[in-house]
Request: fold
Amino acid sequence: MREWEDATWTAGQTEAEVIGRVGQAVAWCAIELTRPGERVLIVAGKGHNGDDARLAREHLAGRQVEVLDVADPEAAFSKLETALSLRPALLIDGLFGIGLNRNLDPSWIRFIDRINAARVRVLAVDIPSGLNADAGRPEGAAVEAAVTLTVGAPKKGMLEQEAWNYVGRLEVASDVGLLPCPIVSELEWTLREDFAGFPPRRPVADHKGDHGHLAILSGSRGFHGAAVLAARAAQRAQPGLVSLFVHEPAYLPVAAQLQAVMVHPWKTVPDLSKGFSAVLAGPGLAAPDLPGELKPLVVRLWTTFEGPVVIDASALDWLPTDPPPKNAIRVITPHPGEAARLLKSTASRIQANRLKSLRDLSAKFAGCWVVLKGHQTLIGRATGPVWVNSSGNPHLAQGGAGDVLAGYAAGLLAQPTLAGERSRLLRFAVWQHGFAADRLQSSRSNWTVEDLAETLGATSLA
Reply:
């Protein structure tokens, strides 16, 4: 950030201009988090972080705003108590910025602990005060934010597991007057603007044959719902055709819930080598009485099928390490527990270093694309950039959400006109999946995964 800022000042932009725009961005975020007439408490320290927070005040029309300037936490403590007693709807934290790299003294720890104890919703400016921006750990104490609006780009420490409960939802104020970022990073943050014009508009004379045919191997006795969710999500991506091959005991409940999807009972091994543009295998393939030929089929598809293959859920345990055909797209979508099984590790170790875990998974399985699900889902391969997803919320932690993501991604990959942009396509699928959950959560708190499959892809960015 310092190198980026120095380049910006050298180009003639002023710090005052950038700080003003950051203050405005903070205010816009605060307005989204509150309602007219509600009280907002701004706690501002001595540095530029405090300036950012203070300047938000002039843009908070319709809110009752109090600014508490804090140079000495002991002297300001009683004022904090009084301000908190008025029950603000939001506290804007501008005490410390990213320069903090030493333990806070006891008076600051007491001050921050009092903010956390109040259980007030907190919007942190750039970084939660007290959090080390490089290591992602608190320096004695750190503000527990509901939302962190960071400036320019996320800081490395914010992506560490230890930091997640302090950072809360991470949002980026990217348009604040800085130059285009001159720094190249291994990790790249995903923004909505990345998908402007994607997917492209379809030519008016297109027909279903132009948009691919997806084969889904999914669903078994007792796990028929996964097949339905994956198929419905694939439809939201709008491939030309979707064919679902399901374990015969689950055929009737699955077929009864789908209309446009062609559902086939699993009687004999289907020939998927021709007539299909992509394959998804895995959701709901967990019954103990699955046909014995299913695993060899998945292995054969992985190693010989020319089109994209997406492997999810139970089928992840069948993955071979043999390479697929040259330039063939292969994608796996594990959650941390599944990743741990594949790497003979533990979920806690996977979470402790998610980037390394993704790299190791891709390297083990011939350089495939990996979508490592969870908070801040990662998308990437053994080499090259890895993208961090910015959408989604904790309410995605429901059974079936992963089936929806796998179906949607496979539905996009089945379309020959889209599959060439594989990295953008996978990032788009993950972002839309999270954004659909965000839209649902903003409108009702009791949404289900069935609602997710219904809402998925409703936001057009073309």
Notes: The first helix runs from residue 2 to 10. The chain has 16 helices and 16 strands.
